[in-house]
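Query structure, 257 tokens:
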């Protein structure tokens, strides 16, 4: 398979963009209509673009006819409430697939490590077309929370961590990285997540924005990391036994959102 990928993401698989500086009215995310959706942690989603413009979050490949995560249809009743968020999602000029605001309740580092998953953005994507990646804009100010990325799900030595202050912007190949958020806060965290198609438009945007593929990772206490590893393996084994008792073969966690 040979997809069109972004040169800026080739080396590390991510870029951190300069933060969005202007405050955004929280009404833009609080006033949206949210739906429950399976995800990593306790979450709800407010879609801005979906398969057909309905307020739902299902993967485009689960609809009829199925398609990959491209050509999302903007939901007018939602975008009218969130003009800045809509503009931020469209700003790169790349094709947009799913676009939604995620609401995540506080959790622990161990929760996040257990929640690590790869996205499924490129299911049904045609060979020779653009690889789908994800753009994030953190909406709430969560400087003590971390986006966690791992090349290897079970190896914490491959982990990098980025803090999530208000306006933090990143573009990540979320099908390459195992990822989850440790939301170390008191109130829900809100973030804008947009599926973008790689290609000349995205490359030009990353270059113009000065995307950094070597942003500094936050260090964590080694004991915290080791305890989370132990807890992850304990929970996976617990889940495996539960599934086994029900006659179900457990699949690796692949994200559906
Ligand atoms: Fe994900």
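Result returned for the query:
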């Amino acid at each position: 398979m040979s997809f069109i990928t972004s040169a800026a993401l080739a080396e590390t698989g991510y870029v951190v963009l300069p933060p969005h500086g202007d405050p955004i009215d929280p009404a833009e995310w609080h006033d949206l209509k949210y739906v429950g959706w399976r995800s990593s942690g306790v979450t709800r989603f407010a879609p801005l673009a979906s398969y057909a413009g309905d307020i739902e979050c299902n993967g485009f490949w689960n609809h009829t006819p199925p398609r990959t995560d491209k050509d999302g249809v903007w939901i007018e009743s939602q975008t009218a409430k969130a003009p800045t968020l809509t503009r931020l999602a469209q700003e790169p000029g790349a094709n947009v697939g799913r676009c939604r605001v995620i609401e995540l309740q506080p959790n622990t580092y161990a929760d996040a490590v257990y929640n690590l998953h790869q996205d499924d953005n490129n299911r049904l994507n045609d060979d020779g077309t653009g690889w789908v990646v994800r753009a994030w804009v953190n909406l709430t100010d969560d400087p003590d929370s971390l986006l966690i990325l791992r090349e290897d799900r079970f190896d914490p030595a491959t982990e990098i961590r980025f803090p999530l202050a208000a306006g933090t912007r990143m573009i990540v190949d979320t099908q390459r990285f195992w990822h989850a958020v440790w939301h170390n806060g008191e109130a829900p965290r809100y973030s804008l997540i947009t599926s973008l198609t790689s290609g000349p438009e995205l490359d030009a945007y990353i270059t113009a924005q000065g995307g950094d593929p070597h942003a500094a990772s936050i260090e964590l206490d080694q004991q915290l990391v080791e305890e989370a590893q132990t807890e992850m393996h304990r929970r996976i084994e617990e889940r495996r036994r539960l599934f086994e008792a029900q006659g179900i073969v457990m699949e690796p966690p692949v994200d559906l959102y």
